[in-house]
Write a structure and sequence with these properties.
35% helix; alpha/beta; three-stranded parallel β-sheet
């Protein structure tokens, strides 16, 4: 993946990725469907919940009676992104990241999320800031889930997070980006990758995020709860590519009136 320079690469913590789609591993029917959907997505970074994943709950996945996610997401092929889903305090989140680092032989890249409410799953922003400071000081490469507040996103960048991940809408809602202007402001003021996390429902939502200039999109429910998760994973893959190319190409200006596609010069006047 890093043997040579990748054109238009997504760079996180010094590592290059050709895919700008990040995916999760929850809510699938079984391991086979999980693996097939991840394959179809083209994702290279795969996030997994430390507190909910059998791999972490069985001393490194060594219990033969437990399904092992590493059978479908090999660390030799994918970058694993342990996350702190289900943590409601800074202490729990920090402890969970340290556990993941121990079980994954010093793995430093983590996704930090500290939740503030069990119904909406909105982030607890003060606790997130506290945990981010501790983890960065402790040598972690922190990708952080947070609200779509441009000030908070900038503060997390200044703390030293390697990527900032504002929500598009509540986790698992599928509502799409609810405040494009906040996301646009966050992107315009950032010097680290901005990755939309939570709320994407379909491929057009992913494309819009990329057209706004986001560096990537992380999703799970939008794929796993589709009628055909594998096909939706493929759709998301193409949506990400289309949105990125549209952003790089630069869209035409919006106009109030028509503008003829064919030139009018040289037409005779009847």
């Amino acid at each position: 993946m890093n043997a040579s320079i990748i054109p238009d690469a997504l760079t996180i913590a010094g590592r290059q990725y050709s895919s700008r789609l990040l995916v999760g591993t929850g809510k699938y029917q079984d391991m086979q469907q999980t693996g097939a959907a991840i394959e179809a997505s083209g994702a290279q970074i795969v996030t997994l919940a430390v507190r909910r994943t059998p791999f972490f709950q069985t001393s490194g996945g060594q219990n033969p009676n437990e399904p092992n996610l590493l059978d479908v997401i090999s660390p030799s092929r994918y970058t694993l992104l342990p996350n702190t889903a289900g943590c409601y305090t800074a202490d729990d989140a920090v402890r969970t990241c340290r556990l993941a680092r121990e079980l994954l032989d010093g793995h430093k890249l983590v996704k930090l999320e500290v939740l503030g409410d069990a119904k909406t799953l909105y982030p607890d922003v003060p606790a997130t800031l506290e945990a981010a400071k501790i983890l960065v000081r402790d040598g972690f490469d922190v990708m952080v889930y947070t609200s779509d507040d441009p000030i908070i996103c900038k503060r997390l960048e200044e703390i030293g997070c390697v990527a900032v991940m504002p929500l598009a809408a509540p986790i698992g809602s599928g509502l799409g980006i609810q405040n494009r202007y906040n996301i646009l402001s966050i992107v315009e003021n950032a010097k680290v990758p901005i990755i939309v996390d939570a709320g994407v429902g379909t491929a057009s939502d992913a494309a819009i995020a990329m057209e706004l200039g986001c560096h990537g999109v992380l999703m799970n429910t939008a794929i796993a709860e589709a009628r055909n998760p594998v096909l939706m994973a493929s759709a998301m893959r193409h949506g990400i590519v289309a949105g990125r190319e549209a952003y790089l190409a630069g869209r035409m200006p919006r106009r109030r009136y028509a503008s003829a596609s064919s030139p009018l010069d040289g037409l005779s006047q009847a």
